[in-house]
Specification:
By secondary structure, this protein is of the alpha+beta class. 26% of the residues lie in helices and 21% in strands. It has one domain: HIT family, subunit A, CATH 3.30.428.30. A nine-stranded antiparallel beta sheet has the order 1-2-3-5-4-8-9-7-6, with helices on both faces. The chain is globular and about 45 Å long. The N terminus is likely disordered. Keywords: Cell membrane, Hydrolase, Lipid biosynthesis, Lipid metabolism, Membrane, Phospholipid biosynthesis, Phospholipid metabolism, Signal, Transmembrane, Transmembrane helix. One of its GO terms (cellular component) is plasma membrane.
Length: 239
Amino acid sequence: MTLLRRVTALAASFFPLLFAPAFADSDVLWKIVHDKCVVQTAPCLSVNTAEHYAMLKDLRGVAQFLLIPTDKITGMESPALLDPATHNFFADAWAERDDVNARLPHQLPRDGLSLAINALQARSQNQLHIHVDCISADARAVLKADADKIATDWAPLPDKIAGHEFTAIRVKGETLGDFNPVLALAKSLKDPAKEMGDHNLVVVGANFADGPGFIVLTDVATLGMGGEDVQDHSCAIMH
């Protein structure tokens, strides 16, 4: 069997489970990364052993990738995320944006790329994963209009996005650098150990009047509404 056929067969054996009903195996992502990717890379596109994560193409969408830690970290509620020694996975996800661009006819504009983690009650898998994909046209329009109203302290976003009433902050810079969105959210909560799991967390590239940066969004998930709702897996903004 050729390498391509082996990879295809391996992927086929795992991927149907990823999109099965919510009552299916919630550890599929962990099994893919731990049992396969860290051993032989495939079906992941790449594995960064230094930063402890892998990049996996999601079957949904033309260009959606998942950044998945290679260590066992269940999700937003994980105590590991509150440890300053844990890698800044959002910074890593932004650095891997070329994986998304490679699937598109031309490079996404800065404010067209979004990184999203769904809250505990809005996810189906019990392994942390960041959805790396195009932002929806509606979400992009709202954030473009509100960008220069967003401050460096958490405050309600003036407008809803996909039914979400987000709280937002701005971050300046070409990259996230040492700014960790997870720790920034934790600092804003009274009891992070208990509250983090209820939160969606989203990072979107931005072009502010005074230079490039990011908009960070969060809200408490309700009715299964996840941070991924700001994304468009068909990547219509590229058409």
